[in-house]
ribose-5-phosphate isomerase (Adineta steineri), 233 residues
Amino acid sequence: TDKAKESAAIAAVDEHINANVHIIGIGSGSTIVPAVKKIAEMVKKDKLDLICVPTSLQARELILSNGLKLGSLIEYQELDLAIDGADEVDEQFNCIKGGGGCQTQEKLVAICAKKFIVVADEKKWSKNLGDQWKKGIPIEVLPIAYKITKKEIEKQLGGEVVVREGTEKLGPVLTDQANFILDWKFDSSKVSNWSDINTKLKLIPGVVETGLFINMISKAYFGNSEGKVQLLV
Ligand code: DER
């Protein structure tokens, strides 16, 4: 719910945004929206010196429309903090992202940040990855390699790979990097080592980036419809 997302977003901003933080990564999706609004209020009130590095064209627009200063990964590779949403997080901090198709730039921002903070509705918190997220693991691939990668993933790891099609556009969705997205659906209940799965995926020629964020989260804030926030640290 919006209340759940808002409470998680504001709890994270209240805890991590202050005068000692100068360069932050801004995630993609809907939960980051109340976070950015809160950040903009704080910058204005406390005259904070803050530069925001986006994880997508959507994040870039969110930064600009909230009057925040825009930076890029070309200028900044050491971020004090990154705040982003997630599609699912398990208790070992394994995380699926990419529901919005932005995982490549999101992961780059996340690895440049001293702390990677996730904000989400508590519905995203699962015992095991795949318990709730049923749309598959998003994998960004080079357009020329979409059939090669589909075949190789299904051969090596099983399951079924589907190219993500546009809704208001015929044909495959293009990412901000002008690549395709494969959504890989499989029985994740049997997976014991997500890091191993991620490594195998990344080694397949044509794969650009996966939506598996393994052991990257510093702290996760999960909100519920009453506005209560639980932490996973
Ligand atoms: O696509 C992404 O990685 C987004 O961050 C997504 O996972 C979170 O989107 P939401 O905040 O709208 O749930």
Q: What stands out?
A: DSSP finds six helices and 15 strands in the chain.
